[in-house]
TrEMBL record:
Top-rank taxon, per record: Bacteria
Annotated Pfam families: Zn_peptidase_2 (PF04298)
Annotated transmembrane regions: 6-25, 125-144, 150-170, 199-223
UniProt-listed InterPro entries: Zn_peptidase_2
Keywords: Membrane, Transmembrane, Transmembrane helix
Protein name, as recorded: Zinc metallopeptidase
Keyword Transit peptide on entry: no
Length: 231
């Protein structure tokens, strides 16, 4: 019986894994590059986030500092923008861009942006599917040769893939909102906006890569089920 680590279907994942590795390198290198480029405005990422929220009439979202690097996120449950120290305290192009991006998510939540609402509804089933779908499918294939178990794994993991796919328009839209607001309210010059856009584009690539990896895993499970059909 072949072992999971020597699974020949893993070849399906190779392009996506290479892209994911490149995306991680790209986002870190681009972020670090523009983290050292100070914006003309004297405002920090936290300042920009608070001001943009106020300009959009959003007063129930807090802006707080969180630990880690590139750990920035919007918490819709507690209505909090959590910014990493580099972003919260920094006034670089990277800091302002990331802060505005996360503010974009808060704005999406405020206007009840449909893809964001749909993504939130998928969270419970997507978490369950990502934790158990792939493992159940592989376990059913390698140890029980069970088409039923693999099919259940496919069904569960499909929810995780759908979550990744829906994440793409949510992230792209947040970045688009961020750039428009930064330009509209004169936080960045035209040249500075180009640097900030590079940071946001690099971050977006990580979501594309994650989606392709998830799709690759789903394709693997489908191939496994097909192999069982042929036995």
């Amino acid at each position: 019986m072949p072992f999971f680590f020597f699974d020949p279907t893993m070849v399906i994942l190779i392009p996506a894994i290479i892209l994911a590795m490149y995306a991680q390198f790209k986002v870190k290198s681009t972020f670090n590059r523009y983290l050292n480029v100070r914006a003309q405005t004297a405002k920090t990422g936290a300042d920009v986030a608070r001001e943009l929220l106020n300009k959009e009439g959003i007063y129930d979202v807090q802006v707080s500092r969180t630990s880690g690097k590139l750990s920035d996120h919007y918490d819709p449950k507690d209505k909090v923008l959590r910014l990493s120290p580099d972003v919260y305290d920094g006034n670089s192009l990277a800091s302002i861009g990331v802060a505005a991006h996360e503010t974009g998510h808060a704005i999406q939540d405020n206007v009840d942006y449909a893809p964001l609402r749909f993504r939130h509804s998928l969270v419970p089933v997507a978490n369950f599917g990502s934790q158990f779908g792939l493992g159940l499918g592989a376990f059913g294939f390698f140890f029980f040769r069970s088409e039923l178990l693999v099919s259940i794994g496919i069904l569960l993991f499909t929810a995780a893939v759908l979550f990744q796919i829906v994440t793409l328009p949510v992230e792209f839209n947040a970045s688009s909102r961020a750039l428009k607001l930064l330009k509209k309210h004169n936080y960045l010059t035209g040249k500075e906006a180009k640097g900030t856009k590079k940071v946001l584009n690099a971050a977006a690539l990580t979501y594309v890569a994650a989606t392709l990896v998830a799709i690759g895993h789903l394709v693997r499970l489908i191939v496994m089920r097909g192999m069982l059909d042929d036995e």
